[in-house]
Amino acid sequence: MGQGAKAIPDEAVEGMLFEVKRGAVDDGPGLRTTVFLKGCPLQCPWCHNPEGVSPESEVWFLHLRCIGCGACVEACPEGAIAPGTRGDRLPDRGLCTVCGRCVDVCPAGARTIVGFTVSAGELVRELARDRVFFETSGGGVTFSGGEPLMQADFLMQALRGCREAGLRTAVDTSGYAPKEVVLRAAGLCDLVLLDIKHVDERRHEQTLGVPLRPIVENLYALDEAGAKLWIRIPLIPGFNDDRATIEQLASLLGGMRRRPLVCLLPYHRAGAAKYARLGRGYPLQDASPPEAAAVEVLAERLRGAGLHVQVGG
For residue 135, how far is the Cα from the chain centroid? Predict the structure, then answer.
């Protein structure tokens, strides 16, 4: 590539997305366009984007729209949809190939496919259409998921393309990825939104399905590299909303060379209805969002450790 030439995103490098959301205000500064990538190694029981966990496309079924006509049963070439009553026609995951024929024949729009592929170049061109909103609000593009670092090649291409297009970017990550991948992404974006969910090794792996140590190591590696960081802590009832855990989190973050912004994200049930659409039960059915006063008490404990804390975002 000659001097001054721009790095055009490779059209052959494709990513699997499940949504591109414009006008987001909780995924970094200003107005954001958030790109949601499919696939995540964590199994968070409270996940509000369960459609982003699998790296593959899936059939999304809106039970209340189903009129029980049986067209999907007849159209499925694999016999993955058994005859049943209205609202009882989820595909057998072992048989379903996500061919889309059941979607095409559904007269009520009760079925759709979650997950679509796009090239890095095509995505960047689409994102550049939002430039005026970013410029007037100080916003930009946030790559989220799922876990965006699972699709590292596509993510890096998209980040390079956004940089060449003059678009500010953020990467919203669990931090569970190879250190070299985390640092490469940090070097190509303007902000890293890093989730820290717990500080106890056993509790972390038992609940989320992955070890804590690589995440902490990546946290300190990003700090050492001088990356701009926002730490996001989802406050989950019965998991990490107790005084002892918050004080341990304060100690962990207080050991960083640079004090990042800490965002407390109170638990909510906004994604609960999505589980049924994927044929799954919601794991935190009995959990309730915390009272604002209780969240503020925890925020004050973190501020007492010298951390800059905000609730939300």
Answer: 24
The dihedral formed by the CA atoms of 191, 192, 195 and 198, expressed in degrees to the nearest 10: -110
Alpha carbon distance 110, 185 (integer Å): 38
Select the CATH number that applies to the domain covering 58-114 from these four: 1.10.10.10, 3.30.70.20, 3.30.1330.10, 3.40.50.2300: 3.30.70.20
Q: Which residue has the tokens 């930009």?
A: 140
CB 190 within 8 A of CB 140: yes
- Which residues of the chain fall short of a pLDDT of 70? 1-10, 85-88
CA distance from start to end of the chain: 39
What pLDDT shows up at residue 199? Answer: 95
pLDDT of residue 83: 83
Strand ranges inside 56-101, DSSP E: 58-61
pLDDT in tens, 234-254: 999 999 999 999 999 999 999
Look up residue 129 and give its DSSP letter: G
CATH number for the domain formed by residue range(s) 14-54+118-311: 3.20.20.70
Which residue blocks in the chain are alpha helix, DSSP H? 71-75, 101-105, 120-127, 131-137, 152-164, 179-188, 201-208, 213-225, 243-254, 272-277, 292-303
Let me know: does 264 contact 310? Beta carbons within 8 Å.
yes
pTM of the model: 0.93
Task: Please give the pLDDT value at position 92.
Answer: 86
Q: Give residue-wise pLDDT tens across range 12-35.
A: 799 999 999 999 999 999 999 999
Q: Give the up-direction half-sphere exposure of residue 235: CA atoms within 13 A in the CB hemisphere.
A: 25
Quote the pLDDT of residue 265: 96
**pLDDT at res. 1:** 35
Give 233-280 as a DSSP string.
Answer: EEE-TTTT-SHHHHHHHHHHHHTSSS--EEEEEE---TTHHHHHHTT-
